[in-house]
Structure prediction request, 1322 residues.
Amino acid sequence: EGYGEQLPLKLGGATCVREERLTGRDSLVFLVDASKEMFIKGEDGAPSNFDMTMQVVRTVYTSKIISSHRDLIALVFYGTEHSKNPNDTFKHVYVYHDLDEPGAKRVQDVDALRGEKGAKLAAETLGCGPSSLGDALWCCANLYSDIKLRLSHKRLMIFTCREQPHGGDNVKDRQARTKASDLKETGVVIDLIHLMKPGGFDVSLFFRDIVSPPEDESELGLQLEPCEKLDDLQKRVRAKEQKKRATARINLCLGDGLNVAVGLYATAVTARKPPPVKLYRESNEAVRSKTRTFHTQTGSLLLPSEIKKAQTYGKKQIEMEKDEVDFIKKFDDPGLVLMGFKPMEKLKLHHHIKPSVFLYPEEGEIKGSACLFSALLKKCSEKNVYALCRCIARRNNPPRFVALVPQNEEVDDAKVQINPPGFNVIYLPYADDVRTLDLPRCTSASQEQVDKMKDIVTKLRFKYKSDAFENPVIQKHYRNLEALALDMMAPEEVEDLIMPKVEQIDRRLGSLVDEFKNLVYPANYNPESKPAAKRKTGAEKKPKVEVSMDQIKVHVQNGTLGKLTVPVLKEACKQFGVRTTGTKKQELIDALMDQLSS
Amino acid sequence: MAKSALILCMDVGFNMSNSGPGEESPFDQAKRVIQKFVQRQVFAETKDELALVLFGTDSTKNPLDNDDQYQNITVHRNLMVPDFKLLEEIENQIHPESQQADCIFDIALNVCVLVENTTIHKLDRRNIVLLTDLNSPVSSDNLDVIIENLKQADITLQFFLPFPAEEGDGEAPGDQDRRGPGHPGTGKGLSEEQKEGLDMVKHIMLTLDEEEGLEQIYTFSAIEQLCMFKRIERRPMAWPCQLTIGSALSIRIVGYKAVTEEKLKKSWKTVDAQTNQKDDVKRETVYCLDDDNETEVQKEDIIQGFRYGSDIVPFSKVDQEQMKYTHDGKCFAVLGFTKQSSVQRHRFMGTQVIKIFPGKDDEHAAVALSALIQALHELQMVAIVRYAYDRRSNPQVGAAFPCIKQDHECLMYVQLPFMEDLRHFTFPSLENNSKFTPSDEQLSAVDSLIDSMMLVEEDEDGKQKDIFKVHDIPNPAFQRLFQCLHHRAVNPGTPLPAMESWLKATLECPEVIRERCQSALGEIKNKFTLTQVEKKKKLKTSAQIFGKDSDEPEAKKAKEDEADEEFNLADIAEGSVTSVGSVDPARDFRTLIRQKTLTFEEVCKQLTHRIEQLLGNKSTDYYMKSITCVEAFREQSVKLGNADLYNSYLQLLKSSIPTQGLESFWELLVQDGVTLISEDEVEGSTVTRNEARQFLVTERIEEAAAHPAEDPGDVDDLVRIVLL
Prediction:
């Protein structure tokens, strides 16, 4: 299924792939100022603006490789001494990478421009020269038009610390403005990532007419302070670089045909190691797989009308047509239907079955949605209630109930949005999803013991941030690939950020641990050892339970195979010569039932 | 797991078929109760065993039948796990019979006790359910013996009667719902026998269980509770581990999955439509190179690689195994503690909540864990932990929240995101935009809507009452599936039934709320203007998508256009076209038809064969080629006035979309407007113009399109399991 598999989206996967097929690829051009000013180091040896920019570019490259490698990225410098662009039409514009999918080589190229050495390399290959933003934008426009693929989202980010790149040259300014508006007309969104310079960065002097107007009417984009720290820069670029796409556009029905159009957005999706690609040994080229369904006896291909679907219950196989299977799943058309409201405290912490999604109005579908949505958001938030809805996100999906939890917009000190305004959609469990547990008898701790633990907890306080932990499994996988792709001797080390820093913890706690242990544990108690009773049952279990073939048959007849353990069932399969690929209990049972009950 | 044995003991005597006009007879009611109950058991796939004993039967069949006393009692089925055979038997073999034996139900009870005792299995529960209208005369002679027997065997008893046991003697209002309101024929209509019988039933029940005995007497209308198929229950698996804080402090814990999205244990299998045999269907995957000949590659010659952006890196399983991330296995280690408020609810990841309790039978661990739980609770903090289920599974980062309930304390673990999981989308502000800012009037309309739709109300005692508890609703998808499976199994050959009304009702907004919110809703309609945006449907033709316009020089396009209309000399020059090749099948197709050396049917067959091949590739470029083939097919068919081959092929193609995953191809076809040939175009076509147009409008396509979404994830899961 082509590159569909590569997307680490589970929830949004289909829509994205589908949209991509229909609408094309996302693209991003980094247009970076390479003037002398960009190379000036900050106070106390802080990295130069150029150095920071390269770090950010690298981060975007590697994150794209992981999350959306089909996106196209280009890196272009302006204000250079040397020129490099198709046919060398433009002076002082250096296309370092043209629009293409990022790969290992490109990451290396960008790495080479980082740090002290990078500055040196930049001086050699790029050099500093006069700037013409107009030419640079023109050159970028050519990059876009050279692409044979259909592009959906086109973004161009200008990194600079100079508020007037042409030093007030009106002709050049005008030319740049013309080119910028040409680009914008073809659907390119131009962003300014302005960097710190002494005396502040006045956007209104020149760049206001270059960049695309912000999505909302606010002047938010231009009021932003220039980026000074790498962190801020990363955040600002990241916020712009990820194109948001609704995984579904549906109506929120308040009742009686009163509909608000909304989009569902997957804001957190479990990133997974991508599945491997199959290659032909001789040439390392990717092979395609074709799956066919055919009749075992005649060998002829089976048409959809020649197969049915079946399940077995109570020793009976029950067949359905394929469209009956779909029919059973269909409850209603996709949409959110309001049931009512509940106070926030009714939303239980443990009622969690999958990651939430985000809800935002779609003014483009039903005009007036944003206003009613906004009123609903405001009032829910004020009254501290959530909306309970029935949700069918996609066609033929059975309904789920969801809590729409209001979230007000929040921006940080640098005016970058941390939390967007809208509802978080929390999926709620059905009765089947909540398990009944046998609650063990509990002994409560005394206040003294609790207080000691409070000291421990307080000593180990830290500020949690949801993006603080990298996934060591994925990082390691990509480091390995990187090493293989770039013929490196050994992969770069991955720091496992979710490993407890044991030494630090021990040092911080000091004697508290022993004090606590003295309060709760008796002298000879060792929590590391397994309890004696446990071991005994383990030993008892060992001897293999033999079940005769006759007994198995009786079990088959009575439908009581489930009473047997997996090893016994496996053994039984072997005895009866039942071939099974499954290892799960149900699969073994099914295989035995299939064979023996007929 | 708890196993139990249950005996359904049903009165089928002739009195049971008595009913007032228009009323369902007690027999039919009792039969439905039994059916529903057995259904539940079958689909829950419990290991509980079940027997069916009938009394009042014309014949006699029971272990004691040589004794005169035990006549007219039939053990229809001994204790075993219920199956569809039993359901079919209930449906087809159990009828009201004509016997009216005296003193029969006490004797039937005796038989039941005996049957209960036949099982060799160790049981946790034995239960007898008696369904009767109590109309057969009862003697109380044996009663004490029976009660003694029941007590000794530790058997519990339930009665299902057509009327409530406690009519009029001060029922609690809550009981009303349980028994079903307004049951017909209650109270005054009881015969002398029934009154006597009822007294005896009460006596038995109270002797067995003084306090709650009477609660085990149900009416047949309890069927409402039985309609629901049992919720899926799984045995919680204990996960013993140590919670560690640094190197020196550890606490023995045990974890249980408490909440998780439950999936059905069984999935659909593919069977042959004719024989209904799974073994008759085989799926095979072959691999081939991406060349014109689709050269097949043997499985042994395939190695694996991974994408690194635009690069594909060959990476053998062995290397991968050696270089992959490894860790020490099972772990629940505290990384630090943080404020509860800094862990946002909408950032919860994963698909489960794990409850952490102290290690089994370890009082010291209980105290230590309790200290942690209470400390966290008092400080309003949570532990951020590294969690790894075992050595083969990937470690996670998550939060452990304190949870203090009246009867227990525990930690609740939820997975939190990794940096790679998060997408930082920025959305336009809603407040800074004057167009979207609601007026005070509008806000107050929404305010009253919320007030009128509160699902949690306070009753007179100030106690909160939640009238819509989602976690009490059974998963409707399972309920519906079981309903349909059951229907198909006992009524083969009939269409699937509509959704049951009770199920539909549970998914709707409660009636009270719907009525109460009417005026507020009307107010909102007045105050807000909502208008559907008319969309000029942006039609993307396949040519636009593939950039055909820009890719191909005008000259070449013109040439092709010409070829469409007229026979091109250049094509003859190429002359050697003898079959529809893979390079330009559409052109070959046209050439062959003009050459007339092969029959139209034969050429069409060759073309459709090529189309199948192309579609097998599942790639947009090949789709493009396929579309030109289909277009050529259509154009030539119209020209020759032969619509049948084309029309039937296109219909076949359409029906194969969901199974072949050709949704996106179909969409392109739709956008290019390639539809059936109608009678307007070719005389003799059986398709009307409207049908031809409707043909492309299909719901199925979009439905099916949702499916591939799930697949990559599943494959991914599988791969992970295999590789790790």
User: Anything to note?
Assistant: The longest helix of chain B spans residues 620-640.
